[in-house]
Design goal:
This protein has one domain. The mean pLDDT is 91. The chain is α+β, with helices and mostly antiparallel strands. It has a three-stranded antiparallel β-sheet, with no helix packed on it.
Length: 90
């Protein structure tokens, strides 16, 4: 099999997997009627609704945005109560 064909197949399958993540909403913001952007850690473990606040992106986040071909609108958030920090997309 030609090397270019292998690279093309890997690239197409990678993009397909990224779109599957988007369809199944992996890492998407959690919205509630009381909160537009809820903390996943507080909601899962403490059953408490706490809003997330935006913080500055890291340099590694920019690399992740490039690797995902900007399919996801990734933003870094932090929880005021439990201190969770992470990326979410809308």
């Amino acid at each position: 099999m030609d090397i270019y064909l292998k690279v093309l197949i890997i690239l197409i399958s990678y993009i397909f997997i990224l779109y599957l993540f988007k369809i199944f909403k992996v890492g998407k913001k959690i919205s509630n009627r009381n909160c537009n952007n809820c903390c996943p850690e507080c909601l899962e473990h403490k059953n408490k609704i706490s809003p997330l606040t935006r913080i500055q992106k890291r340099k590694s986040d920019i690399l992740l945005i490039i690797l995902t071909f900007n399919i996801f609108d990734l933003k870094r958030y932090k929880c005021r109560y439990c201190g969770w920090t992470g990326l979410r997309w809308s």
